[in-house]
């Protein structure tokens, strides 16, 4: 993997561990010559990983719709900054440029991007590795929700194989490097046998 897209909060969150793990991931990216693709903000966990990548001599590429410039405050010191017309264009470009995806702790925007990229994998738009960095069990409630959706018959169990999870940044990168996309079952159970 040469370029990994990271989804992360535009706030720092309430635990130092979120910031520290983002920085650790940034150091790993720089050491392994992995370019960071991210939302382009100079705020929050997003900025923590970007700043660490840059500090260690790596490349950080920000992609931001022009409508977010005022709210998120575009990072001025990136290796490359790409302006898009819309959020949809931003997400499509992030997918196109990236060899894999990692979600760090964040809010609605992070969840939106994470679920969309998992959905895209489920329906065959891509077969790239997706990782959840489960810092202090941040994503455990999300994993419980997904398991509940399987139990209740709204999702096939092998959909859970579309992503890998670790609470350690180095292990997560290794898991993603060894990822093989699963052969998906029929998404629509009512069509089984037809």
UniProtKB/TrEMBL annotation:
Hydrolase as UniProt keyword: yes
InterPro entries: LOG, LOG_fam
Gene Ontology biological process terms from the UniProt entry: cytokinin biosynthetic process
GO molecular function, one term: hydrolase activity, hydrolyzing N-glycosyl compounds
One Pfam family here: Lysine_decarbox
Domain of life: Bacteria
Top EC group: hydrolase
EC number in record: 3.2.2.n1
Cellular component terms (Gene Ontology): cytosol
Entry keyword set: Cytokinin biosynthesis, Hydrolase
Signal peptide residues on this chain, from the entry's feature table: none
Assigned protein family: Belongs to the LOG family.
Listed PANTHER family: LOG FAMILY PROTEIN YJL055W (PTHR31223)
Protein name: Cytokinin riboside 5'-monophosphate phosphoribohydrolase
Species in which this protein is naturally found: Gottfriedia solisilvae
Lineage: Bacteria, Bacillati, Bacillota, Bacilli, Bacillales
